[in-house]
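Sequence, please.
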């Protein structure tokens, strides 16, 4: 039989990118720890423990923020790059203490963008500014952020507010002056902004009228707004003609002005309300009010007579910049400053993990799944196809030799007796040579059999380990992240490895080689010649021991 050859398995894959990502992250962490160590071993140890806990917590937050950002992007139909931008803005809102958590920041951005409050091509700073005002208003007055942005959106769409700054300022003053007494201010502007526009009111004059109505005893903002809406409708369709005539006003002219909207409508509204309030007789004034507004006059009652568009804005006080002052009041204190400082430090770590470490781990996962798992599967296949059959043949051959020696041991007894009688010394010499040879043969065969059993169990364990590793998966939160260059092994390479098994020098074990791209190489080698030499040496030693035992008293 020819000289046994070597079974070689080579698994090659490109891991450069994954390795670079991990090394880069590691170098940054090591640099931070080195700075801490310079302050002293005790401080470095304490800081290391603290940093370890912080990293674990930050890692979890980075994963959570990644999910929230992905959901935000889905809500807005954003591209991955746009979603990443919104995630950065959310991180900034949270770190500055504007929202209680990252989810709240994401909700503020989502509401801002879906309500169309950000101008086309808005910068991060613009989006953050609008989301900040929406969040501040919602937080301060216990409102939903989505309700705030919806009201502002309606104010912008109808044109009663020039921009979001004016809308937020007006709403802020409305809340501060008690217009939200029945918790309906935001819904009122969402519902009635179009009516305010038709009457030529802007956001401030409309808010001023609502404030006047509540101060006059109206139940809520909705009742005041509904009364103005009814007046608008009845003047336009001239069902209020009799009341207008009583006030000395031309119904056709008033109808035209209300239909025109803008300044003319606002002037006509002011004229109607001033004329009504000028009537001294309470009963007559009430009768005319009913003629103008119908049953809504009954709901408003005396509060109706406190409405005066010309002084409405003045009643609100200083509106401009109200939303900015509100934000400053919320965060201009030591507690808020400390919270902001802590969150900014935390968010920097979270951003580092989310932008550097997690993608690197994701790439590693992809690389393992695409390269190592298939390679391990191939190694398992080589074992099953080549190595296991050879070991089974070795086991069977050893068993046959062992049985043959045991079955014919009696044939050697006469030779032993003869040598013992003729020449004790020669017999001892012969016994050492022959007895040890055959007696040891039994022992060595047993030893070989034991060795083969052990090898079989070891290989069985390896086979199970290979199966387990091939099924190994990374945690679920990594399963959707990152990419790496995939593992490749062509059919031609596999066939070439198969043909090499047929070569004369590969009859015992064969050879299989899978070569892909550098630089990572994993070699698994089983040297058939070395295995054969070890077995031969074990057999010779065993035969010598068995012969000695035979001369000492035979096989028992």
């Amino acid at each position: 039989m020819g000289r046994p050859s070597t079974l070689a398995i080579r698994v090659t894959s490109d891991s450069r990118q994954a390795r670079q990502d991990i090394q880069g992250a590691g170098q940054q962490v090591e640099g931070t720890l080195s700075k801490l160590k310079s302050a002293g071993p005790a401080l470095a140890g304490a800081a290391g423990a603290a940093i370890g806990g912080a990293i674990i917590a930050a890692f979890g937050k980075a994963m959570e923020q990644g999910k929230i950002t992905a959901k935000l992007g889905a809500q807005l139909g954003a591209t991955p790059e746009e979603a990443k931008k919104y995630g950065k803005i959310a991180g900034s809102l949270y770190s500055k203490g504007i929202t209680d958590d990252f989810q709240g920041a994401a909700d503020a951005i989502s509401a801002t963008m879906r309500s169309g409050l950000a101008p086309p091509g808005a910068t991060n700073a613009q989006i953050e500014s609008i989301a900040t005002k929406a969040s501040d208003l919602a937080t301060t007055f216990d409102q939903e952020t989505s309700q705030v942005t919806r009201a502002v959106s309606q104010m912008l769409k109808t044109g009663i507010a020039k921009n979001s700054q004016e809308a937020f300022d007006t709403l802020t003053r409305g809340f501060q002056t008690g217009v939200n007494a029945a918790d309906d201010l935001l819904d009122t502007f969402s519902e009635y902004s179009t009516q305010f526009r038709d009457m030529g009111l802007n956001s401030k004059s409309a808010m001023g009228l609502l404030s006047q109505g509540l101060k006059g005893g109206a139940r809520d903002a909705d009742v005041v707004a509904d009364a103005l809406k009814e007046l608008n409708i009845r003047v336009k369709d001239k069902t209020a003609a009799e009341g207008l005539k009583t006030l000395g006003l031309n119904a056709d002219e008033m109808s035209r002005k209300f239909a025109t909207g803008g300044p003319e409508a606002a002037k006509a509204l002011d004229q109607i309300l001033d004329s009504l309030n000028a009537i001294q007789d309470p009963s007559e004034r009430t009768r005319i009010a009913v003629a103008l507004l119908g049953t809504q006059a009954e709901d408003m009652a005396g509060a109706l007579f406190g409405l005066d568009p010309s002084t409405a804005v003045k009643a609100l006080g200083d509106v401009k910049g109200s939303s900015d002052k509100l934000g400053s009041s919320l965060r201009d204190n030591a507690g808020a400053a400390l919270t902001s400082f802590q969150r900014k430090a935390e968010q920097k770590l979270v951003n580092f993990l989310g932008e550097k470490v997690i993608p690197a781990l994701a790439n590693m996962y992809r690389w393992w799944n695409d390269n190592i798992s298939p390679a391990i599967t191939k190694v398992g296949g080589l074992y099953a196809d080549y190595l296991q059959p050879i070991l089974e043949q070795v086991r069977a051959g050893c068993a046959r030799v062992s049985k043959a020696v045991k079955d014919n041991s009696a044939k050697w007894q006469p030779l032993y007796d003869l040598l013992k009688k003729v020449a004790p010394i020669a017999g001892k010499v012969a016994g050492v040579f022959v007895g040890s040879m055959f007696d040891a043969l039994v022992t060595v065969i047993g030893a070989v059999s034991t060795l083969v059993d052990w090898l079989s169990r070891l290989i069985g364990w390896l086979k199970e380990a290979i199966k387990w590793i091939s099924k190994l998966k990374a945690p679920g939160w990594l399963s959707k992240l990152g990419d790496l260059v995939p593992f490749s092994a062509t059919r031609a390479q596999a066939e070439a490895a198969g043909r090499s098994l047929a070569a004369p020098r590969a009859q015992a074990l064969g050879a299989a080689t899978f070569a892909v791209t550098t630089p990572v190489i994993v070699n698994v080698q089983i040297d058939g010649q070395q295995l054969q030499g070890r077995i031969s040496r074990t057999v010779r030693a065993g035969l010598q021991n068995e012969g000695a035992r035979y001369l000492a008293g035979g096989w028992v």
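Residues 178-316 form one domain.
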